[in-house]
Amino acid sequence: MSALVQWTLQQQPRTALGCGLLAGIGASALTNPFDVVKTRIQVGNAGLGAMRAASEATVGDGALSIMRSIAAKEGAAGFTRGLLPRVMLLAPLSSLTISFYSAVHRLAESVITRGKGSVEAAEEEKHRHTSGD
């Protein structure tokens, strides 16, 4: 096996962790505005602090109306509420999920590859015995 191939195989867990972390950060950032709207719908008038002031438009209104209300009253910053805790939760989870998937995939691939050779050898042996009769 070449040195490059060995180095690549050694780097796979780190690469999977890094890619998972970046994917988690990106997914959190992209979905956070929708999470803010969902939370406003769920909380309604029971919200505390800034949410209570912004919740006037939430009672019985749809998601689009809530989005307009947030944009008008809080601006773009209103859609970033809770972003840091969301990233801190989802980025490591995504990183671990992708790393675990990658490790299981490599393990399954090696088992299948090893098993494939033994299955082919067994079938070849069986074929030799049946054709000899």
Q: Could you provide a short overview of the structure?
A:
This protein is an all-alpha fold and 133 residues long. Helices cover 80% and strands 0% of the residues.
Kindly describe this structure.
The chain has 133 residues and is mainly α. It has one domain (13-131). 80% of the residues lie in helices and 0% in strands. The protein is built from 4 helices and no strands. The chain is elongated, with a radius of gyration of 27 Å. It starts with a helix and ends with a helix.
Q: Give the helix proportion (percent range).
A: over 70%
Global geometry: elongated
What characterizes the major β-sheet? none
Number of helical stretches of at least 4 residues:
4
Count structural domains: 1
- H/E element sequence: HHHH
Gyration radius, in Å = 27 Å
Proportion of residues in extended strands: under 5%
In the predicted model, the low-confidence regions spanning at least 5 consecutive residues are none
Euclidean distance between termini CA atoms: 42 Å
Structural class: mainly alpha
Q: What is the overall pLDDT average?
A: 79
- DSSP summary, beta strand count: 0
List keywords for this structure.
133 residues; mainly alpha; 80% helix
Secondary structure topology:
Elements: H1 3-43, H2 50-54, H3 63-74, H4 83-131
